[in-house]
Amino acid sequence: MIRQSLSQKLTQKMSPRQIQLMKLLQIPTFELEQRIKEEIESNPALEEGNNDTYEESGYSDDDMHPGDDIRMDMDDYFPDYSEDGSDYTSPADGYDPDNKQERQIASHESNLQDYLLGQLELVDFEDETDKIIGQQIIGSIDEDGYLRREPIAITDDLLFSSNMSISEEQVVKVLTVIQGFDPKGVGARTLQEALLIQIRSKLNNTSELDEYKLKDLQAAEIILRDYFNEFSKKHFSKLAQNLEIDEDDLKAAYEEILKLNPKPGSGFSMGGTTSIQYIEPDFIIVNRDGTLELSLNSRNSPDLKVSNGYKSMIRELQRKKKMGKLSKEDRNTALFVKQKIEAAQTFIESIQRRQSTLYNTMHAIMMYQYDYFLTGDTQYLKPLILKDIAEEIGMDISTVSRVANSKYVQTEFGTKLLKEFFSEKVQNNDGEDVTTREVKQILSSIIEKEDKSNPLSDEALMELLDKTGISLSRRTISKYREKMNIPVARLRKEL
Q1: Is 64:72 a contact under the CB 8 Å cutoff?
Q2: What is d(CA 269, CA 397) in angstroms, rounded to the nearest whole number?
Q3: Who's near 22: CB < 8 A, 6+ residues apart?
Q4: Residues 424/438, Cβ–Cβ less than 8 Å
Q5: What are the pLDDT digits (tens) for 45-72?
Q6: Residue 360 CB burial class (10 angstroms; 0-12, 13-18, ≥19)
Q7: Which of 199, 364, 441, 455 has the greatest CB tally within 10 Å of its CB?
Q8: Distance between CA atoms of 367 and 442, rounded to whole angstroms?
């Protein structure tokens, strides 16, 4: 007897336009200029500058002969094109392209572990234990970006340091999350795994790959996955035979592998001597007589437009069409032009949406933490989580996370990373919300005043904190103490 069953599966897939926007959101201001240059180099229909006034030609789809497989209607190419030429260069709200004031440059110590811990803080784990596991894993990653310790060793570390009984499966689960962090390949246990993580990351963006690039990357993945030994020994003839590809295709796949980073952690320090990375802020907040003004840093965001040369090509193709002289070659040209113009429009729109999203996100944060930005006093920082801002601006939490994790704001009190304005909240005994930052400050103050010959245990700290109106478990106290790099009572004892 044949049994049939029906099941439904709900999946969410991002469009190429959404993927492009998400990638642009992650790019800090100092990298945006290079990204725009790369796009201009790859798409001749895109160029810098203001749009010129453009007169519609009057061409319509009605003029196309039956069977034509291309669309040349100008409304399809330039759906929002206005006669004043201001379509895709109009600034987002609050964005001032003429804002050329000098920017304050802040220095930042580029530390791999800090960079990874920052990303870990933005992961919404269902179990708080997973975050502790993640911290232990990151602490075990070496300067090359590799995890040289086995999962069983990580479980032993957690058992001795935190008295936590963790399974190897839990460690592997959290490690998989960390391996999705930047830089790609970090947390790998072998060279093969590091390269595979990187190549699969590229393959996840298939919408941006042409068929030849996709084919090369797929071949590279097979080589790394199934024939790594042959690859490492450069047995090219055997590789070509096993993959059933010719020498040129093998060379192309091999070159893709050579582009990967065998040391994902390179470029970062691991504490001690640190390299200095100069940060250019993405936002500027200025206090104008008690009123805060927010602006976007426009230095690395030039005006973009569709190439005048491509507009001329459209005019010429339209002229030929009206004269009945549109050849098959012309139709192929029209299709090529259409693709390039649409790609240019999509990129311009993504840049605009990036600017708008950045501004709206930062504006919501500024309004929420208004008193802090006025005074610079951390006591005015309110409890704030990513979900609060996401709901305020009507966007996904992941979008806010991308902005908060990599963007800086210049204030009168220094240049700050946006994620500094987010903190978890706990309730005191009166039912009022208190930031974890405040709790840590109170704990730090209690420890500073303790009798150094008889330091306070975590249990004693818990009892004293309870007297201030904040009730936390001993385990939570221990977690906060460790985050502040304060050792246990035994190690704080002085003669």
Answers
A1: yes
A2: 30
A3: 14, 398, 399, 402
A4: no
A5: 888 876 543 333 333 333 333 333 333 3
A6: buried
A7: 199
A8: 26
47 bridge partner residues: 305
Tracing tokens 């084919």 back to the chain, one arrives at 215
Same domain for 418 and 394: yes
Residue 162 is classified by DSSP as H
Tokens of 26: 């992650």
* Last-in-domain residue among 366, 395, 423: 423
Provide the mean pLDDT of the chain. 77
What's the domain count of the chain? 3
Q: Print the domain residue range for 439.
A: 425-492
Question: Is residue 176 located within the same domain as residue 303?
Answer: no
Residues 226 and 288 occupy one common structural domain = no
- Burial label, 457 (beta-carbon count in 10 A; 0-12, 13-18, 19+): middle
Q: Cβ(459)–Cβ(476) under 8 Å?
A: no
- pLDDT, one tens digit per residue, over 127-171 is 888 888 989 899 889 888 999 888 888 888 888 777 788 889 999
Quick one: 325 and 360 in the same domain? yes
> Would 155 be classed as within a structural domain?
yes
The residue among 103, 97, 114, 54 whose CA lies nearest residue 78 is 54
Reduce the DSSP state of residue 304 to 3 states and report it.
strand
Is 461 in the same domain as 385?
no
